Every structure is written in structure tokens, then in C-alpha cells.
Amino acid sequence: MTEVHPETWQGRELTTLAGYHPGVAPLDEHNVKLLDNVHPIGWKPSASRRKRYNMVVLGAGAGGLVSAAGSAGVGAKVAIVEKHLMGGDCLNVGCVPSKAILRCAHVVREAKNAAEFGVDIPNVHVNFGKVMERMRTLRANFSPTDSCDRFQNKLGVDVFQGHGAFTSPSTVEVNGETLSFATAVIATGANARVPDTPGINAVPYLTNVSFWNQTQLPERLLVMGSGPIGLELAQAMALFGSQVTVIERGNRIMGREDPDAAAVVHKQMERDGVHFMLNTTIDEFKLGTGDTVAAHVTQRGIKSLVVSDALLVAVGRVPHVEGIGLEAAGVQYDLNKGIKVKDSLQTTAKHIFAVGDCCTMYKFTHAADFMARAVIRNALFFGSAKMSELVIPRATFTEPEVAAVGKSEAELLEEEVTFEVVKLEMVEVDRAVLDGATEGFVKLLVKPKHGTILGATIVGSEAGNMISEITVAMHASMKLGALAAVIHPYPTKAGGIRQAGDLFNKTRLTPFVKATFDKLLTFRRHGL
To answer: Among candidates 221, 216, 275, 273, which has minimal Cα distance to 248?
Structure first.
């Protein structure tokens, strides 16, 4: 493959890309294709651009792109401003690259466990460079959808590359040019949270942004944090051959998720070679020999040293709200919680709305997408769409996957809501048994007797796909008992949801109803 060096490619600098984003590396043909689409050299907005718009969108991640494309699609005059990469985190440093390498990790696990299925594959070898090149290829192939060219020349959106900031409640300035708007959407996303641990700025570290620039597998990887990003990448890197240690200051991983789900994932990740250090704090980082990272830690009062060749900081995300002129626009915000919005996603400035990671705890591409759809209705057509009406599922793509929607047991207990737990182990699902994937369960939280679904957690190899059925049921106010009447193809793992519905229906067979049935059946046997 031809390597394109920065000094020979249109002056593209590798060290930084327009601010806080690190450069995209290596500058091979795939990343050059990516950058030509999402951050092209010498890009200019339309020569016929307007000075006044129906909508100006600040940020071109998922929420911003949907806001811009949807509004332009109904005839609005729209401008979008992006300082960094079109496509935002999802395309460039999130969903797309992560799921590309997780697919490779899945193949490694299948190969290592192939003997269980009668297939002998000796000496499984991982070519990490090829894994990352495949990721770069796929990411580049996705990029035309989010490109400057498509949005401006096919969708009719004026695309501005540069730093945009509000200068008043009705104007945004970018590259010295003032854009006037009737409405605006803030979709600036979030940045990786970097803690103020002593010494962290003295050592090299990766975040979800810079992780994808790697071309060589680190022998030892230290992961700080046990949320979705940290766990997905920790498990993948362990399967690829790194010695992976995950440090978590809490007493369990996946603090937001169901404890039973976290326990299943913890057990599987340990089988895959991940070492966990729970109840552990990092006291200080120091630079070790040969640019290694030395973490001085304390675990339950005992101090020790963890040395790694790479450090991944994955302790959450903070909204990107500074430096974009929110004060001039009259938009209130909090550095940790983000932009203050009403249920309509309207900010404290009447004609300015916000979507996505910059204003919500639901930091998912699909959440930003549907927030943007609501904003289009509310901002352009005096709609009444509400954030609270959205039923937002989530998934962590470890193996097994963990997917959830609605309330958790802890939340319902805190709110003093009476509920019933319906739980089906995956070992009871025939397809899971046949696939050798019996770790996990389907758990639903329902109102007693009525069966109204309050929340659900699924743990299993296809949990991310399965949770959609329950999300549809909740959106349509469909009760759990009714799911038992939905015919599922046999054998499928989704059939476990129907089985859970059967379990619930059995609980409705009270002693009185059972006695009545017994009398009726006796009469039918002897009374005719």
C-alpha cells in the first residue's frame, strides 16, 4: 500500500487538525480519501450562499447533519458550520471505527474457540496492522455520505469549514463572515473527559479520538475506566493479543447497567484475558523507561505499580460548550451537564435549539438523530415534539452484548415504583444453546398484573438487535403479555422475548382462575 507523507500531500499537517482534534494518521490512501470527504483542503461554501438563513447549524456530527439535511429537505435555507471533521464522532472516532474492529475481535474469538465446533485452527495469529487498515478502509467508504460535497452540492446546505461562534441571539460568525438566522441548532457534541490525575499530562495517552491512529499492537494496555468505550476496546485488544488491565475506582464495571449484566460481561472478559482492578484509584502517572507509562495505584489501601506500553483514558465525556459564544446568544449552560434545554429542546434563547451530546445524558448517535427530528418540527413548524416522549435504547457491544431500554431496577426502587421482574436465562433459548452462546438473559421490569413494560435489559450475543423489539413495544404501549402472542421464527434468539411473555402470562394464573379452569375442564370431560 502506498504511504502518502504529509509534506507531499497538499500541505496537510499530521500533528493537529484545526484545534483540539489530533491528526488523522497514518496518511495512507484510506485516510486521504476520508479527509478529502470530511475536511477537504481549500473548501469553500457556495458562491451563491445567503446572508440570512432559516437555520444555521453549529456542528456536523449526527445531530447536526440530520438537522441540516432534514430542514433542507423540506425547503429551508440552511447553513452548517464545522471546524473539524464532517460526520463527527460517529463516523470518524466512534461507532464506525469501533464496530469495525469489534468484528475482527469476534472472528479471533471464533477462531480460538473453533475446536468446540469440530474445527481445528492451530496458532491463531492476528495482524493488527491489517485490522486497523480494514477499519480505515470501511471508514473512508462510509465518508461520502457525510461529506462536504454531498451536503452542499446534492442536499443544498451551505457548508462552512471553520470555527463558528454566536455573536448575538441571531448571528453566527465563521471565518470572519456573519451568518444571520431565524433559528439555530447547537450540535457541538462532547469531548473525551481527561481527569486531573497527577502526571497525566507528562505521559502519552490515548482517548477514543486518537486510539484509531495506532498501527502497532501495544504489548501492554492500561484502560482507565469501565464504561462502554473502555470495555469494548479492552476486550478487543485482549483478543488481539495485548495484556490488558482495566482500572475502575468503583466496586464493579458498567456502573450504569444492571449489576447482573455487568457480572456476566466481567466473567467473559476475564476469560478473554482482561485483568480488572476494581476499587482502585490512580495516584500518579510517571513516564517509564522507553516511553512506557507507570501508574502508581492504590487498591483497598495497598499501593502498587502498573506499567503499560499504552494508556487509554475512557472515563466519560464532557459537553463541548466553551468558546462558541453561548453567552452572546443568551444560551445558558453548565460545563458538566451541557446546554440547558426545555423538553422541546429549546435553549434559554427562544430561537436557538440544541441536540445531541452537548445537551443530554443520552450520548448516542441514535438519540441525537431523533432529537434532531424533533427540533426540525419545533424550530421550523411550531411543533410540539418533546424529548420526554422518546424511548431511547442503548447497547454496549462487548461479548456478550448488553442492551437496555427504559428504567432500571435501581431507578424504579428510588422512585418507589412497584414492579415485577420477569427474567429468562439464555440457556432456556434453544437458538442460544445451538450457537453455544448461553451466557446472558432477558430481563423485563413490568407493572404487576397489567404487564406494562417499564424497562428491560438483555444480555447476549445479539442483544443490541433484540432490544429493538422491546423498544417498539414500549413506544406503542404494548404490554408484555401481548408479546407472547407475537409469532417469532423458530429457532431465533429473539424468541426469548416471546418466552419471557409466556412466563409473565403464567403469573396471571391466580389460584381462583386455576380453580375455575379445573372445574371447566372437568365439566368438558364429563358433562357433554
So the answer is: 275
Indicate the DSSP class of residue 449. Answer: T
Amino acid at 462: E
494's torsion region: left (phi>0), alpha (psi -120 to 50) or beta? Answer: alpha
Considering only CA atoms, which of 290, 56, 48 is closest in space to residue 170?
A: 56
Q: Considering only the C-alpha atoms of the chain, give the largest distance between any 2 of them, rounded to a whole number of Å.
A: 95
Q: What is the pLDDT of residues 40-85, one digit of tens each?
A: 999 999 888 888 999 999 999 999 999 999 999 999 999 999 999 9
Phi-psi region at 79: left, alpha or beta (left = phi > 0; alpha = psi -120 to 50) = beta
Q: What is the DSSP letter of 199?
A: T
pLDDT tens digit sequence for 449-477: 889 999 999 999 999 999 999 999 999 99
Q: DSSP class of residue 349?
A: S
pTM of this prediction?
A: 0.93
pLDDT tier for residue 8 given thresholds of 50, 70 and 90:
very low
Give me 363's grid cell.
Answer: 450520548
Task: Return the pLDDT at 11.
Answer: 43
| Distance (Å, whole) CA 411 – CA 421 | 14
Cell (9 digits) for 484: 407472547
Per the CB < 8 A criterion, the answer to whether 68 and 80 are in contact is: yes
Separation CA 27–CA 39 (nearest Å): 13
- For residues 349 and 221, give the distance between their C-alpha atoms in angstroms, rounded to a whole number: 45
